[in-house]
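Re: 4'-phosphopantetheine structure - here you go.
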Amino acid sequence: MKTKVICPGSFDPVTLGHIDIITRASKMFDQVVVGVLNNPAKNPSFTTEERMELLRKATAGLDNIEIVAFDGLLADYTRERGITAIVKGLRAVSDFEYEFQQALFNKKLNPALETIFLTSNSDFMYLSSSGVKQVASLGGDISSFVPECVHDEILNRLK
Ligand code: PNS
């Protein structure tokens, strides 16, 4: 049976940390769905379609990736799509408590669903979309935080 997993997130915007996790997942599993949370209540800086387009460009070199938007419960979406596991990156101990809670909620809501944590690449342990937004809005250099192919697009929207 083919393994289909999901890398879910806000991706507002995508960072090199996200791409590292997606790339590693794409080597481990047959199909990787990148699920962009469509939740306008979170007031994202980029629309759902913009976040998906940035991800499409940044993952263009990977052939087993599908970029989708989802709303509602991740547990329901994964059931509908026949996805067997969630793949998430863990940057630091501080991520663990929140991610562990999410994993347990998801397991209760969809007992067939596993959550797999990949250890963050040490180069990206500090990296977050909110940090990128703050640096860009204050005129800083974000070139070591986001994929080169979408750098200008992200910077122009944030500065
Ligand atoms: O990049 P983020 O913001 O940390 O991603 C969080 C995300 C999208 C993975 C999480 O908010 C999510 O799964 N939202 C959907 C609602 C849901 O199923 N929540 C889990 C049970 S509380």
